[in-house]
């Protein structure tokens, strides 16, 4: 008899019958009944009504019966929480059983019962099991911590299970280590900031040892964990790589791909001159190719990843073109991916082979695949110039087949070929025109119209051809309409005599009869251009077009680098960073490749923020752009939240009710931003200086002019988070005016235009006094420096921290948000010198609670030097005294909003520390004023 | 990690579901069905599908879909590998991985799934360990069980579970100690119209069947190990020994397993054992065409090529085919348009051929695409790459085992374009 008997039902009512059997005295009958229950459960039938009867069977020596009851419990406990409590005693008892299998089973099942009341009882048995003498129990308990954390995170933290779990990383049994790593990684995913997997060379060493001995699945967890580590130098990176390389020969493809991820990431740190670098490159190719002989599902994931790897390091697979040739019976999703990679690998050396293959594919059956193959031929022509001629003739052959969709695709790609190689292949136009009637797809029609318009002077009947399209103008898609409009205007400019009527017809169609605003606008522009200045019109419409780039569909370098860190994951399949699609975006940490540490190349990557940067020095970027409305004007209504929530009541700065405290959290001084080099790991040698010295030159030049200290520019918005736009900047104050000096760098592949900037409301009402002026479009890899004047008359809202400034920058691509901290001394006004009497009176008047004391360390200057240095930043010395060998300086300053700050600075000759006492009616600012002192005095 | 698993048959019924965390409603599979509909062909369903709240990662094996539900970022390869392992385990336990077999053993299936994965983490996937935990069903055992009331669930901790060699259980005993190795090589090739090789490589495996008592420590050496430069190993193989001495040294699992798989790709090493002469043509504006193929031996190293079958997917407009063959038999399915020619052995004296007329739908344009020929064949006692086992030594045990090596070469994805 097979289990299918469990599915048979009687008419009497199944549940009723089962209930009777479950309560039978006969063991065998009971077991059969439970099996029937489980069988119903597997097909999604609701058998929860039998809960008490099944739980009654739990107390048994028969392990099979016990396991079956446990299976049932896991499924239904949640729907019957009160009943589930009945099972607790048995669990607790089983956790003490002499048989480790039963202990493990009990703790494992308990963790799966997602009922709050049960979790309380779980803690004690779990604690014991985590320290069990049997490793099988320990490894099961490790996973149980992750389960419990999923149900009740607070409980796990309170009970100290996380620490126990961390200890298990040093367990003597590799399987336990692997499970502990897996559990910690899962927990860390929901707590990105918790730094649970605190990796250091010792723990890395332990992981590498366990890697050799644990199961294949454990190896995946350990490798994925290793990939998050940043080695301190190239030597460490190399030694890890050496120990990971043997994993490339593993039979499990997931192990192989995780190993590839670790190697690809750490390779970044190795110098290309190293022999080992070359060896590693060679070793990477065979395992990647081997993945392609696996099942089609595995191939698909492998191909998506290879696509990334080929873009990052084409040298790895450059000789392996043939393995990507499409087989007749590959599933379509594999075919399309292979095709993509073939084009990426195409080069002068192999283009003949590739073309022969593509031509073969273009006669296949599957329409999508054929289309892509035809397009691929066009891409080859654009990528490998030497092959262009052959590609064009191949395309012409394909057009001769008259297969409708092949012809249309061919025309679309030939248009691109014309743009890439102007005045070279126009002889084929006649052939193209023959196929005009068969085109029914908008893209192909638009491409054909473009060709006719562009080469109107060579096509005798260009006007007829275009006119034929005009008949059904309103039924065309927008793409075709726009193209037709432009095409006819081009024709008119080239052959004005015979086409006047035609152009008038199209202009009136576009402007009067269309309700599409794009079309209307374009129509009006052409109309006015043509009617006011035909010469200008010619210059505009027939202007020389920029060349199209060689490679299409390339992933932006910054995104590519991030995706390389995610090899093997879903992100690598979708080619999007996890933040773009992971459910709920629960604080996904951006990953970046480690910087190369060989000193000679250090200047190359200071912008990739390495782990060595002290927290707080990185300006925080407001994450998840998706959540924020991409509307600058909305900024005031829905201020983006970064870190602490904003206080909503707006405070008038004149009234001194800035009370609210909470400034203590700022300790650690973040009001000047460290130069970017501070972020480079300490193991770097000295030669960073050269790259930055001109930065310093620039700023010191400004500094001597009228004084106020200017911090070097720091990266505020990394390119990775802003689709390739990198912004760094600093604040300056010169002769009474504040400005924000920005440096915009385009690290994307496309041109950026239409820049605009806006600030959120902030504590001191800082606002741009003029629009952001970027005169020319910013082309890729170009950098532009801009000084943006600021005013302090904007709207005011108290920020947390006080000097926090939230900025939105817009360009043609998107809106990006970041926040930065400005140094307070840019707000110190020039008339901040207080009269002596006034100073004394005010000092006395401000209550003592408002006095704050700070120590400024390592400031070996004498009183004069201090005084003059501060004065240049608008901190004025009102009086000076000498008391018991100490110099006392009494100083005053005024903020842009009229708040006075009084200071007493005590300097002891010979002692590098000096004492600063600050008194102010708004004591919140004291902390920031102190930081301004520090900054000014130390620079 | 893996949240849930649904097993779905070809007609779209969900016939088994298992949840390792909370229960996910069956309705999530609707997204899968949607994708399936779009793909038209079952084999073309994309393996990774995103839905608003979950990801579905699926494999298609033996006419069944294994669809897993994922909620967090997880390596998809890990999931796919695991799903294949599940299918392998079913195959191993029930002799076949089919809906009927799974339904017949639904309780064992459930117990297995529970044993294989805990909270989404793989627990025990080695067949040796699983079989100690849950005994495979046999007719004898079910009879014995129903009489004695004993169960088919082991109640002691499997010995291999935690040792450094999780793949082998302790206390193995055989009266006849045997170790057999099958070297199986498959040729994947694309041959173009003119008969020249576009692409060819050999996918080889060494499958072992080891029935040895105790803890034998084996080393297997080759006459020409240099052939193997792209190899994937079973975890039992000591990688360092291979790196330094090119010897496979290992303590084997008990029973059948795949020792290594390898790939030989350098073009000059891959011999192509058969050639095909073909002429397939369709006349313009007439509803017929000609079909003529002849198959013959090429670099066959003096061995007989047998088990030859040729499969051709004819264009859609083909209605029927009237062919004559000099050897074997052919069938043409007018629904799927698949022509299968079962040739058998090649005798060089008289080369097998298949020729005749093709009837096309009248009025339809002549087909643009030319069909590819898929060829299957087999050569016994030959590893086409030339790989040869030198010797097998055993350490650690005293007895003398029987040893044997078999070679076979087959066609893998071997296709000839016309």
Summarize the entry for a quick read:
Chain A has 939 residues and is an alpha+beta fold. Chain A is built from 35 helices and 13 strands.
Description:
Chain A is flat and about 100 Å long. Among the domains of chain A are: 346-438; 441-532; 714-822, Immunoglobulin-like, CATH 2.60.40; 827-938, 2-Layer Sandwich (TATA-Binding Protein). The model of chain A is unreliable at 598-706 (pLDDT under 50). Chain A is an alpha+beta fold. In chain A, a hairpin with a 4-residue loop joins strand 7 and strand 8. In chain A, helix 8 runs parallel beside helix 11, helix 14 (234-244) packs antiparallel against helix 15 and helix 25 (462-470) runs antiparallel to helix 26 (478-494). In chain A, the strands form three sheets. A five-stranded antiparallel sheet of chain A has the order 1-2-3-6-5, with helices on one face. In chain A, strands 9-13-12-11-10 form a five-stranded antiparallel sheet, with helices on both faces. In chain A, strands 4-7-8 form a three-stranded antiparallel sheet, with no helix packed on it. With 418 residues, chain B is α+β, with helices and mostly antiparallel strands. Chain B has three domains: 1-146, Beta-Lactamase (2-Layer Sandwich), CATH 3.30.450; 176-268 and 383-414, Mu homology domain, subdomain B (Immunoglobulin-like, Sandwich), CATH 2.60.40; 272-378, Mu homology domain, subdomain B (Immunoglobulin-like, Sandwich). Chain B is 17% helix and 41% strand. Chain B is built from seven helices and 23 strands. Chain B has a nine-stranded mixed sheet, with no helix packed on it. Chain B has a five-stranded antiparallel sheet with strand order 2-1-5-4-3. The model of chain B has no long low-confidence stretch (mean pLDDT 86). Chains A and B meet through helix 2, helix 4, helix 6, helix 8 and helix 11 of A and strand 2, strand 4, helix 2, helix 4 and strand 7 of B.
């Amino acid at each position: 008899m097979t289990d299918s008997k469990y599915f048979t039902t009687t008419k009497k009512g199944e549940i009723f019958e089962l209930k009777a059997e479950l309560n039978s005295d006969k063991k065998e009958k009971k077991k059969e009944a439970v099996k029937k229950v489980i069988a119903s459960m597997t097909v999604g039938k609701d058998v929860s009504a039998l809960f008490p009867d099944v739980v009654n069977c739990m107390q048994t020596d028969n392990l099979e019966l016990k396991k079956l009851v446990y299976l049932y419990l896991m499924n239904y406990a949640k729907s019957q929480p009160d009943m589930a409590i009945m099972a607790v005693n048995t669990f607790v008892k089983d956790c003490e059983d002499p048989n480790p299998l039963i202990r493990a089973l009990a703790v494992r099942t308990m963790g799966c019962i997602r009922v709050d009341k049960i979790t309380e009882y779980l803690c004690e048995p779990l604690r014991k099991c985590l320290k069990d003498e049997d490793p099988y129990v320990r490894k099961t308990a490790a996973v149980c911590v992750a389960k419990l954390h999923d149900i009740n995170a607070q409980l796990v933290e309170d009970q100290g299970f996380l620490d126990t779990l961390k200890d298990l990383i040093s367990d003597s049994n590799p399987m336990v280590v692997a499970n502990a790593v897996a559990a910690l990684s899962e927990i860390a995913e929901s707590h990105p900031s918790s730094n649970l997997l605190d990796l250091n060379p010792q723990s890395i060493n332990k992981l590498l040892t366990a890697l050799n001995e644990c199961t294949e699945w454990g190896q995946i967890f350990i490798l994925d964990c290793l990939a998050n580590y940043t080695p301190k130098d190239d030597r460490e990176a190399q030694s890890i790589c050496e120990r990971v390389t043997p994993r490339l020969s593993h039979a499990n493809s997931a192990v192989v791909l995780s190993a590839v991820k670790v190697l690809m990431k750490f390779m970044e740190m190795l110098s290309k001159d190293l022999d080992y670098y070359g060896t590693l490159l060679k070793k990477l190719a065979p395992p990647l190719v081997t993945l392609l002989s696996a099942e089609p599902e595995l191939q698909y994931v492998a191909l998506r990843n290879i696509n990334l790897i080929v873009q990052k390091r084409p040298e790895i697979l450059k000789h392996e073109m043939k393995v990507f040739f499409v087989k007749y019976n590959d599933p379509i999703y594999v075919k399309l991916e292979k095709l993509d990679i073939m084009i990426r690998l195409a080069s002068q050396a192999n283009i003949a082979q590739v073309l022969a293959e593509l031509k073969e594919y273009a006669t296949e059956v599957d329409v999508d695949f054929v289309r892509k193959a035809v397009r691929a031929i066009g891409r080859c022509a654009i990528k490998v110039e030497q092959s262009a001629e052959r590609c064009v003739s191949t395309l012409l052959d394909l057009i001769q087949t008259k297969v409708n969709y092949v012809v249309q695709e061919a025309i679309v790609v030939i248009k691109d070929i014309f743009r890439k190689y102007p005045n070279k292949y126009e002889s084929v136009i006649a052939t193209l025109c023959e196929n005009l009637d068969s085109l029914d797809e908008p893209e192909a029609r638009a491409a054909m119209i473009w060709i006719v318009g562009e080469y109107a002077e060579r096509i005798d009947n260009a006007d007829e051809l275009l006119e034929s399209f005009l008949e059904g103008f309103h039924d065309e898609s927008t793409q075709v309409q726009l193209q037709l409009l432009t095409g006819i205007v081009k024709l008119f400019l080239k052959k004005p005599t015979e086409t006047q009527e035609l152009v008038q017809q199209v202009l009136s169609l576009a402007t009067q009869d269309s309700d599409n605003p794009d079309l209307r606008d374009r129509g009006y522009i052409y109309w006015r251009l043509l009617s006011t200045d035909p010469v200008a019109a010619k210059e505009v419409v027939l202007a020389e077009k920029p060349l199209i780039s060689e490679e299409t569909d390339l992933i932006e370098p910054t995104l590519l680098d991030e995706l390389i860190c995610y090899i093997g994951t879903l992100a690598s399949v979708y080619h999007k960073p996890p933040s773009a699609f992971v459910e709920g975006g629960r604080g996904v940490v951006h990953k970046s490749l480690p910087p190369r540490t060989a000193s000679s190349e250090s200047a190359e990557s200071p912008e990739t923020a390495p782990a060595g940067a002290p927290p707080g020095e990185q300006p925080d970027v407001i994450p998840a752009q998706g959540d924020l409305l991409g509307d600058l004007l909305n900024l005031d209504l829905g201020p983006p939240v970064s870190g602490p929530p904003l206080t909503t009541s707006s405070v008038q700065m004149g009234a001194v009710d800035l009370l609210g405290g909470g400034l203590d959290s700022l300790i650690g001084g973040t009001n000047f931003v460290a130069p970017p080099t501070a972020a480079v790991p300490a193991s770097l040698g000295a030669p960073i200086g050269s790259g930055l010295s001109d930065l310093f030159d620039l700023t010191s030049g400004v500094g001597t002019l009228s004084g106020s200290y200017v911090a070097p520019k720091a990266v505020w918005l990394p390119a990775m988070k802003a689709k390739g736009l990198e912004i760094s900047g600093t604040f300056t104050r010169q002769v009474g005016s504040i400005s924000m000096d920005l440096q915009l760098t385009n690290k994307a592949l496309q041109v950026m235009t239409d820049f605009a900037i806006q600030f959120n409301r902030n504590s001191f009402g800082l606002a741009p006094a003029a629009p952001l002026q970027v005169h020319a479009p910013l082309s890729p890899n170009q950098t532009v420096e801009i000084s943006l004047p600021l005013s302090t008359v904007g709207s005011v809202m108290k920020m947390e921290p006080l000097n926090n400034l939230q900025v939105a920058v817009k360009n043609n691509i998107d809106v990006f948000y970041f926040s930065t901290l400005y140094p307070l001394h840019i707000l110190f006004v020039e008339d901040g010198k207080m009269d002596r009497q006034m100073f004394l009176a005010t000092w006395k008047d401000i209550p003592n609670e408002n006095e704050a004391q700070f120590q400024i360390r390592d400031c070996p200057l004498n009183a004069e030097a201090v005084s003059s240095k501060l004065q240049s930043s608008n901190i004025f010395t009102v009086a000076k005294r000498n008391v018991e060998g100490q110099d006392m300086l009494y100083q005053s300053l005024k903020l842009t909003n009229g708040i006075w700050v009084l200071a007493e600075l005590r300097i002891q000759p010979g002692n590098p520390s000096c004492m600063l006492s600050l008194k102010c009616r708004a004591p919140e600012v004291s902390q920031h004023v102190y930081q301004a002192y520090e900054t000014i005095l130390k620079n | 990690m893996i949240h849930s698993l649904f097993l779905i048959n070809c007609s779209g019924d969900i016939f088994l579901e298992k949840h390792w965390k909370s229960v996910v409603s069956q309705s999530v599979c609707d997204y899968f069905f949607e994708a399936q509909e779009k793909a038209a062909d079952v084999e073309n369903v994309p393996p990774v599908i995103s839905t608003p709240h979950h990801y579905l990662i699926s494999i298609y094996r033996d006419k069944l879909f294994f669809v897993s539900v994922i909620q967090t970022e997880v390596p998809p390869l890990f999931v796919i590998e695991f799903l294949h392992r599940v299918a392998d385990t079913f195959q191993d336990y029930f002799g076949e991985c089919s809906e009927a077999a799974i339904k017949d053993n639904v309780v064992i299936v459930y117990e297995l799934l529970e044993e294989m994965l805990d909270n989404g983490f793989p627990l025990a996937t080695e067949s040796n360990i699983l079989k100690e935990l849950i005994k495979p069903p046999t007719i004898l055992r079910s009879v014995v069980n129903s009489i004695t009331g004993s169960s088919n669930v082991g109640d002691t901790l499997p010995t291999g579970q935690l040792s450094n060699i999780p793949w082998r259980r302790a206390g193995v005993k055989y009266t006849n100690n045997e170790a057999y190795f099958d070297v199986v090589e498959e040729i994947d090739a694309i041959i173009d119209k003119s008969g020249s090789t576009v692409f060819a490589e050999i996918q080889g495996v060494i499958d072992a069947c080891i029935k040895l008592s105790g803890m034998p420590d084996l080393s297997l050496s080759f006459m020409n190990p240099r052939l193997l430069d792209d190899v994937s190993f079973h975890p039992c193989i000591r990688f360092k020994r291979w790196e330094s001495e090119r010897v496979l040294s290992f303590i084997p699992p008990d029973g059948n397993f795949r020792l290594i798989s390898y790939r030989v790709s350098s073009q000059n090493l891959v011999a192509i054992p058969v050639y095909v002469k073909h002429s397939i043509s369709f006349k313009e504006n007439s509803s017929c065409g000609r079909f003529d193929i002849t198959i013959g031996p090429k670099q066959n190293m003096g061995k007989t090529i047998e088990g030859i079958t040729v499969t051709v997917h004819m264009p859609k407009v083909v209605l029927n085919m009237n062919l004559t063959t000099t050897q074997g038999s052919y069938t043409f399915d007018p629904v799927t348009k698949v022509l299968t020619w079962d040739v058998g052995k090649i005798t060089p004296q008289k080369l097998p051929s298949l020729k005749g007329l093709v009837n096309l739908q009248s009025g339809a344009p002549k087909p643009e695409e030319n069909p590819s020929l898929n060829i299957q064949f087999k050569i016994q006692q030959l590893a086409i790459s030339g790989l040869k086992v030198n010797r097998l030594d055993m350490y650690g045990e005293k007895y003398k085992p029987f040893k044997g090596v078999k070679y076979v070469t087959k066609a893998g994805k071997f296709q000839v374009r016309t």
